[in-house]
Automatic annotation (TrEMBL):
Entries under Gene3D superfamilies matching the protein: 3.30.2130.30, HUPs
InterPro entries named among the record's database cross-references: Rossmann-like_a/b/a_fold, ThiI_AANH, ThiI_fer, ThiI_N, THUMP_dom, THUMP_ThiI, tRNA_STrfase, tRNA_sulfurtransferase_ThiI
Similarity comment text for this entry: Belongs to the ThiI family.
Domain THUMP: 61-166
Binding annotation for ATP: L184, L185, H209, F210, R266, G288, Q297
Entry superkingdom: Bacteria
Function as written in the Swiss-Prot or TrEMBL entry: Catalyzes the ATP-dependent transfer of a sulfur to tRNA to produce 4-thiouridine in position 8 of tRNAs, which functions as a near-UV photosensor. Also catalyzes the transfer of sulfur to the sulfur carrier protein ThiS, forming ThiS-thiocarboxylate. This is a step in the synthesis of thiazole, in the thiamine biosynthesis pathway. The sulfur is donated as persulfide by IscS.
Keyword match tRNA-binding: yes
Name under which the protein is recorded: Probable tRNA sulfurtransferase
Keywords per UniProt: ATP-binding, Cytoplasm, Nucleotide-binding, RNA-binding, Thiamine biosynthesis, Transferase, tRNA-binding
Coiled coil: none
SUPFAM superfamilies (alphabetical): Adenine nucleotide alpha hydrolases-like, THUMP domain-like
Main enzyme class: transferase
Amino acid sequence: MDEIILLKLGEIVLKGLNRRSFEDKLIGNAQRRLRPFGKFRVYTKQSTLYVEPQEDSCNLDGAYEAMKRLFGVVGLSRARACAKDKDAMLKTAQEYLGDRLSAARTFKVESKRADKTFPMTSIQLSQYVGGELDELYPNLKVDVHHPELTVYLEVRDYAAYVHADPEPGAGGLPVGINGRAVSLLSGGIDSPVASWMIAKRGIALEMVHFFSYPYTSEEAKQKVLTLAKLLTPWCGRLMVHVVPFTAIQEELRRKCPEELFTILMRRFMMRIAEKVAERTKSGAIVTGECLGQVASQTMEAMKATSAVCSLPILRPVVGMDKEEIVTIARKINTFETSILPYEDCCTVFTPRHPRLRPLPGEIEAAEAELDIDAMVAQAVEGIERIKIDP
Ligand code: ATP
Ligand code: MG
């Protein structure tokens, strides 16, 4: 195999995080993501993660695409291996980076020499290859300060490697390095985006979906599972906890004022989410709530729903416009699925005149009619766990 993938590590360099655990987590995540594409050796050296195919059958295109979605990586490039010889490196640069060399106007060559027995210094090597390329490509001018293209030459133990500037990576922190959270996944646009944003900060997710069969269809559930699947290239393997929610909704409809229905329902979602968090050792609850979109997303409503649980509620899209959320949804490829027209459990029971600002005591009075613990316990008992592999 004469081609490898180089990944530039992210924020670790700036943050006080433990470098070793950052790298170990990243290597583990990379290895799991690479599994479908063949056998690879993965290791770090000087803020770079090396991904080396170990057999000819490795699918390097697939591996590269997977690595683009790996949180913790700020940039990535493919590199071509060649003999540790100045003319071999020059020829490889021409063959491998020909298109970019023809397109750029300014360039420089930067060399690194891990093998100290190599007969030239890195400056001599850069000067030689840079000089030759300058002559070979009339479009190119050397600019050592702000080049459009940098050609990198690395002389390492077993081979030399040639590559160009990295493409942007997924950014963020390796999933799992900052613990675990429960994410409430509906079939809408916002919650997959919220989940993605929190995973990006290094948090492993447990997905929770409230399912109101037969008010919502089997297709609506499948849609949520599809959304979870679309998140796995970023989040890794996911568990979706499907909570049977119909009994609670029916009980609320029987016993509580219709105007409070949405807020009471959301309080049950939070209570159940907290139970799932306990079981999965999660430290927070994530939602796709956004201020002011709908009646249940006023500050007062958020206060009323937050009041029933003690874990922090992370609402990463709270201050975003719909358009900004949609931009991310398109980028992470969840948008087309999110807009499929299946009803969700909230729309089925939406009150005609939802109370925007519940009065003090009103919610407690309504809930006094309910056996909350039994309702929550029964829902938790009925949870179906569905594992979603990348
Ligand atoms: P989304 O686009 O994420 O569905 P939304 O704008 O439709 O959000 P709501 O329906 O009020 O807003 O829901 C707010 C948040 O509550 C959702 O983003 C999600 O995190 C959670 N949520 C709502 N319905 C469900 C459900 N059936 N299962 C799991 N979580 C839900
Ligand atoms: Mg929704």
